[in-house]
């Protein structure tokens, strides 16, 4: 209806312009009707009477003044008088004929003008009627064609709406999967399918995180309960056995505390930054390495100027997790290097270590929550196969990097170990 109305308005405007041009463009085309033929400013005269023939040269014309003049070459006084009298008669006759002809000409001209005006009005009326009828027919046709084309163009939108209403968190694996030409609507459908894919990955990651967190928290709680029940079931407990039970419960509680703190840090990192402040990567890395227990691992630093902006506490946690993971997942006589500086104008932190060989297709699994390396370099997700650790180190590093708009790159070294690079956006 909207397209039809627009077409009708445009057609009416075109019709009005055409009518105005036809009505006013031609003007008054009636011209005076001439009876007779003029040559210059004179008309032909009748021949002279017999008395003037042979003795007088005949005049050729009637000048603008209206007097008939005959030029005399050889004639006497009597001939001149006769010629003048004849000229007066001719002038009088010419004046009467001119007046009669002018009146008849004016009447004929008025009649012709009236007939031309009637024909013009009739033609304009016919033009307006037929053009209006054609416009009405085309307006109806445009509404029908607009209805058909709009329905065909919007059919993918209805399909997307219908399928999108049936998608929820329980069936995020479904997709719109639009068919048809590669136009804007199909591109919109593919974009929505990509969004559904990302949502499915996020929901799956959340479910896996909740399940793993529940398992990780349940294990120490179950251990503490078992220790307490064993101690209470002993009818004659000794001081040493009770102290050992308390010590083991305390270790388990500390593990729970570290896990909860790591979970809170991960959640806080995923929320993003509320404000930014200057951050010196060189100073933070030096402080973290100085306070980090090496456990016999050689730690070498090459620190250059690297300044960015962000949350200083979160960046410090990022550096600490990288160095701690590099020390924990290493050989007994291994090494760790920490480097800071600028690459392509971006403040960069790079931590490398020796250790077990990691397959390239397993690198992306390391940044998932509760994924760890076991002693053989394989990725594991349970405490039984791993060294002491929570499996949240690189997950927290990834979340902090995302919050700071930084790029995290994890590259396995062919001889064993990893090289983790974090490139921050430039800052003061």
> What is the spatial order of strands in the main beta sheet?
2-4-5-9-8
Give unreliable regions as ranges. 32-45, 47-75, 375-388
Strand/helix succession = HHHHEHEEHEEEEHEE
Q: What general form does the structure show? A: elongated
The major pleated sheet works out as: 5 strands, mixed
Total strands: the figure is 9
Your description of this structure?
With 428 residues, this protein is α+β, with helices and mostly antiparallel strands. The chain has three domains: 2-34 and 41-159; 167-271, Signal transduction histidine kinase, dimerisation/phosphotransfer (DHp) domain (Helix Hairpins); 276-423, 2-Layer Sandwich (Heat Shock Protein 90). 55% of the residues lie in helices and 11% in strands. The chain has seven helices and nine strands. It has helices at residues 2-25, 77-165, 184-233, 239-270, 281-291, 312-328, 393-403, and strands at 277-280, 298-303, 307-310, 335-343, 346-353, 372-373, 379-380, 407-412, 418-423. Strands 2-4-5-9-8 form a five-stranded mixed beta sheet, with helices on one face. A two-stranded antiparallel sheet has the order 1-3. Strands 6-7 form a two-stranded antiparallel sheet. Strand 8 (407-412) and strand 9 form a beta hairpin. The longest helix is centred in the first third of the chain and has 89 residues, at 77-165.
